[in-house]
Design a protein that fits this description.
With 216 residues, the protein is α/β, with parallel strands linked by helices. It has one domain: 3-Layer(aba) Sandwich (Rossmann fold). It contains 7 helices and 5 strands, in the order E-H-E-H-E-H-E-H-H-E-H-H. The protein has helices spanning 21-32, 50-64, 100-113, 126-131, 137-150, 166-175, 200-212, and strands at residues 13-16, 39-45, 68-73, 119-122, 156-158. Helix 1 (21-32) crosses helix 6. The longest helix is centred in the N-terminal third of the chain and has 15 residues, at 50-64. The chain is globular, with a radius of gyration of 16 Å.
Length: 216
């Protein structure tokens, strides 16, 4: 697999970010493409606790890659819902926030439709699709059709990493000699202060850093 196999039409595009390693790789990849059209980053807050760490990471990544960042807040939709603190891998789906990706993609689509953008780039991976129903290929195909027809055929949802695992994405980044600012990223699902070191996000991060040859 090679990053160069991913092609993007050079049109105004929105890229959706979390504060994680995949977002950093995606931004690095898009910057290396030297797209002449405008690129705008979006971060959607669904849990106010995100502000403690993840939003800060996204802001730092946007600054590092010189991308304008727009922050949208949908946290009121999830009032009263808490992310369980269970560290049991078998209960990983307990972290699922219902229809979260659909909500985030939809609010970004509504925003960029009015400013004339053509693409929404969403960096989810096959690793996420295994655990979350709204990261699955079937779900995102349906979401893509909804975005396309709902925007009168003006918007496309692009998921360049969907057929690759996170670790495969890290290998591609390594093979492409990308410099990834790992110190600006966050992966823990349980804590927004100090990584727990036990959740799936932390364990996958450890493997990813080994592949990239980076340390914390």
């Amino acid at each position: 697999m090679n990053m160069n196999n991913f092609e993007f039409e050079d049109v105004p595009s929105a890229v959706m970010l979390s504060g994680g390693l995949t977002s950093a790789v995606l931004l690095s990849f898009l910057r290396e493409k030297e797209l002449k059209s405008s690129l705008k980053a979006f971060f959607v807050i669904f849990n106010p606790k995100q502000v403690l760490k993840e939003q800060k990471c996204v802001e730092q990544l946007a600054k590092y890659y010189n991308v304008h960042l727009k922050i949208l807040d949908v946290s009121s939709l999830y009032d009263g819902m808490t992310v369980p603190s269970s560290l049991d891998f078998q209960k990983f789906n307990d972290y699922y926030m219902p229809f979260l990706n659909s909500v985030m993609i939809s609010v970004v689509a509504a925003h960029v439709y009015y400013i004339g953008y053509k693409n929404i780039i969403f960096g989810t991976t096959s690793s996420a699709s295994f655990h979350y129903p709204d990261c699955s290929l079937e779900f995102l195909k349906a979401q893509s059709k909804a975005i396309f027809y709902g925007s009168v055929s003006n918007l496309k949802l692009l998921t360049p990493f969907l057929n690759s695992s996170k670790l495969e994405i890290m290998r591609m980044a390594k093979e492409s000699n990308m410099h990834i600012p790992v110190e600006l990223t966050w992966s823990c699902f349980v804590s927004y202060k100090k990584p727990c070191g036990k959740c799936f996000g932390c364990l996958e991060r450890k493997l990813s850093l080994e592949i990239l040859g980076s340390g914390e």
